[in-house]
UniProtKB/TrEMBL annotation:
Protein name according to UniProt: Ribosomal RNA large subunit methyltransferase F
Subcellular localization: Cytoplasm
Enzyme class, UniProt record, top EC level: transferase
Catalytic activity: adenosine(1618) in 23S rRNA + S-adenosyl-L-methionine = N(6)-methyladenosine(1618) in 23S rRNA + S-adenosyl-L-homocysteine + H(+)
GO biological process assignments: rRNA base methylation
HAMAP family with a match to the protein in the record: 23SrRNA_methyltr_F
Amino acid sequence: MHPRNRHSARYDFPQLIAASPALAPFVAPNKYGDESIDFSDYAAVKALNQALLKQFYGVASWDIPAGYLCPPIPGRADYLHHAADLLAAANGGTVPQGKAVHVLDVGVGANCVYPIVGTREYNWHFVGSDIDGVALKAAKHMVAANPVLTGRIELRQQYHATDIFDGIVKPREEFDLTVCNPPFHSSAEEAAAGSQRKGRNLGYAKTPEPTLNFGGRNTELWYEGGEEQFVRRMVEQSVPLASRVLWFTSLISKKETLRSIHYFLSKTAALDVKTIELVHGQKASRLVAWTFQDAEQQHAWAARRWK
């Protein structure tokens, strides 16, 4: 994991339980005799996230509606730290901090994890967008319930499924970074089958029925055309924002999608495209980043916005 990731070591369950006693009923020795949780149990994963967010980020009140995506905190933190390094490259190797740094989280979800980590680690200002009104309402409630987040995270609703940035980015608004975990699957059936495979790989699957252990509603898990189509639209809609966003980024879950994304980017005027490998246990994914600004323009951006 990234050297700044607070979660590079194994989970310290006694400390996590001390921070959040609600985790205790879910912790038990695994087949190796180590304390762990059943990662196929949505309630257990949710309790673990509540403990992690409370212990490491000071978020005392975190909850999500039943069935909504409950993502692994270490992976989300890893993505954000690698994305922060993209900004550091234009800033003399130092990650810019403070509210002058504006980040857009495309598909923030009810969990709001990227804004939580980015706000608490770097004091950045976040805008989170989502098409799901229930998710946004839950995220707004959670932000309001935690004084450490209040005033630092703005949430906006996307009303058109085919739009990524259109309808969210305001005229003349600038962002230093965009982040996104796109819907990976092209249908509900594909999402369920993927979760079943994940359960078998983890060794936790107890029945042949698919189990969404990390949860996820329709717009969180699937999109017509899958992640390839979603990120293709993101690439297309990034072009008009070339001078108003420094770095665009997205997670790419499927290895076979990577070549397509690079092809789409090759058809634009992107001046720098990076692929960063992210490996967490048995799961491997990639962070793809692109910018339309050369090195001189990036340094001028940093001097104008962060100094």
